[in-house]
Structure prediction request, 117 residues.
Amino acid sequence: SDRAWILGDTMNYRVLFRIERLKLIDKLKAKIVNYRRYCEEMGDTCEIEIVCAGNVVSYFLEEDEFFKDESLQVKLCKNALNGLKPNYEQKNVQIVSAGIGEVIKRKSEGWIEYTIE
Prediction:
């Protein structure tokens, strides 16, 4: 088909969503939903990591169905948590020593960064 010719081979994208402000959490969710829909339409696949720093980390002190999706890897900045700990265990939510360190490490591995602002 023309579509297959235009697209060529399907791609797997590794996308790092970066968020630091709690008031943007709904925007983050919408961007993830829209991006996944786009990949599905294009026949592509994606791996998604979310690096959380700043006051957005407080959102993860309680569970949220959206982020229980184990195909989403969530990294919370230990510095931003400032001693607070999520009161639940979830395999796909990890505390990392520094959000910025995680972003730079992933970018050096070829991940595409998308900042929610």
Remarks:
- Residues 1-6 have pLDDT under 50 and may be disordered.
